[in-house]
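Let us walk through a complete example step by step. Step one is to write down the protein sequence. Step two is to encode the small molecule, fe (ii) ion, as a SMILES string so that its atoms and bonds are unambiguous. Step three, shown after the inputs, is the structure prediction itself.
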Amino acid sequence: MIKDIIEYVDIPDMKPLLKSLFDEHCGVDGRTFGNCPIEAYQLGPSPSKAHAGFIKEFKPITDILDRVSVSDPLVSGFDYFTNPKHGLPHHIDCPNNLKAYNLIIPVFGTVTCDFWEGDYNELEYKGHGSTHYKMFKDTYDTKNLVKMGSILIDKPVLIDTDYIHNVIPVDVPRLAWLTRFSDLDKEYTFKEIKEIVEEKLSWLPCSSDHLPGCYYKEYPKELLQDKFSSEILYAVTIDYGNIGNIPEHTDIPPNSDFANAVSHVIPLEGGMTIHTGGKSTKVEVGSTHMLDIYKISHSATVLNGTKCIHVITK
Ligand SMILES: [Fe+2]
Ligand SMILES: [Fe+2]
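Step three: the predicted structure of the complex.
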């Protein structure tokens, strides 16, 4: 890693999801992007407008990543390197307004990314009316560049793309997802954005129909052991965002182990009112509420920004 320029980030494994999205939607027609001799499958239309883009198809991954900030549709998507001689030449990526950062999640294969000191005045926008990356003028001798460092991209990395960099294939074919966070609300330092990325991406979208726009992450059971006398089957933190109301439902036990289990709601932030058969119970921070979620039909009114731990016990 090169501190504050390119660093590995600790995020959950998204390889299986990415691999299945790529297999399902890409490869039918190899797209090239601008003057890059690699295949690329972006969210938005290709520079030539020949392809409409993959916003709908790639929603399962942007639902996760866009918790940080909206992925720039122009460049965010899959980059697929198949030729060991074809990498990316020296360039910088340019922000739309504030400082932007790239997150790269390798799926298979590897590349190295080199960073260089050089004359930034010798960089210019190139190709397809580009306003989002600069390369060296043809007259610039890249022998003048001095290497700052190099990194093997075999794990997810976060990049400050204001620095001159190039990409060299190492192990091809190489597939990676790239998201460019170019729509941040303010200028973040590398350290700040890295913390945000690692925190926000530790949450995954809830799959239940009655929890649209909600996110979850597993909660370590061992931290709860002395609070519950019965066996803890599962514990999770749910971020309810701005859901407002949860419609009436009875939860479905994931397997027979859960058939007689009950749920305990522990609000960490915000709070909710749980409605069961005409009875309403306010559940606030500092309290724990038990609910027989697999047997009793329930609905809820949820304050904006509510986060709760849910513990399922036998
Ligand atoms: Fe780049
Ligand atoms: Fe429920």
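Step four is interpretation. The two ends are 46 Å apart (CA to CA).
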